[in-house]
Here is the input.
Amino acid sequence: MNIYVGNLSYEVTDEELRDAFARFGQVASANVIKDRQTGRSKGFGFVEMPTQSEAQAAIAGLNGTELKGRTLNVSEARPRTERKGGGAGRGERR
Here is the structure.
């Protein structure tokens, strides 16, 4: 199950995120999302846990708790919706 983790401190690393979830079970991956240009954290991340029951326990156990001074928002990640290309922006007027 993919888990969304919001309101992360900008100092939290992938490893620290993994460690926070590991006490609830196996963590397949833990990624803090970073800005492509600056490399700075965007303040949220995703954790993948292969077992549904462990993932639900982690969500219940960590949502509303504090990590590095910030209260975490933890929930089941929603699937990404397909983004429609804007098409505009070529400087053409019609």
In short: The first strand starts at residue 2 and ends at 6. The radius of gyration is 16 Å. Residues 52-62 form the longest helix (11 residues). The mean pLDDT is 91.
